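Researcher: Please predict.
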Amino acid sequence: MLAGSVDFIDAATTSGTISLGGEASLAPDARSGDAFLPFAGILANFRVHAIPDFDEGTLTFTVMLNDVSSPVTCTIAAPATSCADLTHSAGAAAGTTIAVFVTNGTRDFVRYVRWTAAY
């Protein structure tokens, strides 16, 4: 199981990344949020939960492997608080970097974003 979290996304922040573990806010780009996977595996069953404070717009989450978008992605649209990609998967070799890229299209604050994936 892999997991990552961020406690706060500012309304003015339109994108950034969440790594493995926990952070206070988004890293500014994919390389800033990279973590290394210690062994080869298949990433699947990607799920995200957040406490958004928005009435319109979306939050989109994309798993990045070696700073490249994978097919594993999901979107939270108001008024939902979670999303999942249970269809797509992505293989990774030992030493591959991972981060989750977030696009904040809400223009509002978002709190307590948590992601998990089977690996």
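Model: The mean pLDDT is 93.
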